[in-house]
Amino acid sequence: MSKSILVTGGTKGIGRAIIERFAKEGFDIFTCARSEKDLETLKAHLEDDYPEIQVLALSADLSKKEEVVKFSDAVKAVGLPDVLVNNTGIFLPGSIHNEPEGNFELLMHTNLFSAYYLTRAFVNEMIARRSGHIFSMGSIAGLTAYPNGGTYAVTKWAMLGMTKCLREELKPHQIKVTSILPGATFTASWEGVDLPVERFIPAEDVAESVWGAYNLSPQTVLEEIIIRPQLGDL
């Protein structure tokens, strides 16, 4: 029976790289993003390159609880993922004391609440099955405060805290929980920045870390993976 992975925000950057890595290993894919066009392109690519796998790619804005529920219900109608990667996130620069009104709510709902609701949608079935691996895509911004990080950093600190709580809760149920904490990764978020590509982490390296963590023996879990550019943070 084929294994499967659910990756939110799967059409670009780290999410796309994780999907590619697991598809290459024969995993069925569940994913979502806001752009239907990008999803259609991704689905066609995966079906061409990996004809043996099944792909469910649905449009969803996970900043809205009702769309998280709709997406999770659509996935459940097909099956229960073996791996869940809460990857959806956006970055808006600003400082807490003067960032635009609404930044806090938008980033919290997109970066944190989406992961909370989606995890709750699947975790009880994972507990009943006594297997599963949940990854949360955090950031070094969830470890180190920095100027102009604003609410984005707050959401990543909160994501790390939520993931630590899940780790403790799910230990007895044989479900693994891992925080991925990358530094500057070469994705669309850094478009237009006048820096050489060599200054960034390739998204494929983050995906390889997720794959490696997933493949450890049942008695071992990588709780946190911190990934930085070789030359340090930007």
What does this structure look like?
The structure is a single chain. With 234 residues, the chain is α/β, with parallel strands linked by helices. The protein has a single domain, classed as Rossmann fold (3-Layer(aba) Sandwich). The chain is built from six helices and seven strands; from the N terminus they run E-H-E-H-E-H-E-H-E-H-E-H-E. A seven-stranded parallel beta sheet has the order 3-2-1-4-5-6-7, sandwiched between helices. Helix 1 packs across helix 6 and helix 4 runs parallel beside helix 5. It is globular, with a radius of gyration of 17 Å. The mean pLDDT is 95. Belongs to the short-chain dehydrogenases/reductases (SDR) family. This is Short-chain dehydrogenase. Keywords: Oxidoreductase.
Helix content: 40-55%
Can you tell me the CATH architecture? 3-Layer(aba) Sandwich
Sheet bearing the most strands, described?
7 strands, parallel
Q: Give the helices and strands as they follow along the chain.
A: EHEHEHEHEHEHE
Strand content: 15-25%
| Sequence stretches where pLDDT stays below 50 over 5 or more residues | none
Overall CATH class: Alpha Beta
Domains (count):
1
Ordered list of secondary-structure elements with their pairings:
Layout: E1 4-8, H1 13-24, E2 28-33, H2 36-49, E3 55-59, H3 65-76, E4 83-86, H4 103-129, E5 133-137, H5 150-170, E6 176-182, H6 203-214, E7 224-227
Parallel strand pairs: 1-2, 1-4, 2-3, 4-5, 5-6, 6-7
Pfam family, one: adh_short
Family: Belongs to the short-chain dehydrogenases/reductases (SDR) family.
GO molecular function, one term: oxidoreductase activity
